[in-house]
Design brief:
Elements lengths: L2 H5 L3 H19 L4 E2 L1 H8 L3 H9 L11 E2 H12 L5 E6 L3 H7 L9 E8 L8 E2 L2 E5 L3 H8 L3 E4 L3 H13 L4 E4 L12 E4 L2 H28 L1
Parallel strand pairs: 3-4, 3-7, 4-6, 7-8, 8-9
Antiparallel strand pairs: 1-2, 5-6
Helix pairs in contact: 2-5, 3-4, 7-8
């Protein structure tokens, strides 16, 4: 699949594919060889038609009244997501969040391998975190270029995020996964994915507050009867 074809895939579909893959691997581990859209949809709370449309982007076609051949479908989804070919990544910001990400071994399952971290704190530079060296951020561009690293992860404070992005771009990084609460400017050819933790928390807290208010109103209503 070409880069242009991948870019044409709807983002919601790309966001659902990892859920499909986790479920498919679970079913495969149970010894099954085939799975249907209805089975997937029922397990994940989705519409079977939506599941069929999403899986169509892999190029794998299911058989009527039979379903998809599981090994082929798993391989196709992993290939589309790039998770069957480990990609080296460089991380900038060896604080609490950066340390946690480096310690998450599950990334290897998704084809991501953080090989080194960068920071400006002299107490961190020269140390190792989860077996990865921590280097000074001034070395980032050079090492990224030498390793041909395509993914950069930013977990710095907001004020330092743009500099980290600029150094990544200078080193040839083509995709940036940004956890910093900052709006970054990168060239058009660089893919930027920002994880908006405050925005996600805002959605959670707002919905939780509404749910608690409904519970409280329900309790008052029951007490008045």
């Amino acid at each position: 699949m070409t880069a242009k074809e991948v870019q044409a895939i709807p983002v919601p579909t790309l966001r659902r594919l990892p859920s499909y893959l986790r479920f498919l691997k679970k079913v495969q581990a149970q010894g099954r060889d085939v799975v249907s859209c209805t089975h997937i949809a029922d397990a994940l709370g989705l519409d079977p038609t939506q599941v069929r449309k999403d899986l169509a982007v892999t190029g794998i076609v299911g058989k009527p009244r039979v379903g998809y051949h599981l090994p082929a479908l798993v391989e196709a989804v992993e290939t589309l997501l790039g998770w069957n070919n480990t990609t080296d990544a460089l991380l900038v910001g060896a604080g609490s969040l950066g340390t946690a990400l480096m310690g998450y071994e599950g990334f290897r399952e998704y084809g991501l391998n953080i090989v080194a971290a960068f920071d400006v704190d002299p107490e961190k530079v020269g140390a190792e975190i989860h077996g990865r060296p921590v280097l000074h951020v001034d070395q980032l561009a050079n090492l990224a270029s030498r390793l041909h690293a395509h993914i950069g992860i930013i977990t710095t404070p907001a004020a330092e995020a743009q500099r980290a992005a600029d150094l990544m771009v200078a080193g040839g990084v083509r995709g940036i996964w940004n956890f910093a609460p900052a709006d970054l400017e990168v060239p058009d050819e660089v893919i930027l994915e920002s994880v908006q933790l405050p925005a996600s928390l805002a959605v959670l807290s707002t919905r939780l507050a509404a749910a608690l208010r409904e519970d409280e109103q329900g309790e008052k209503s029951d007490g008045s009867q």
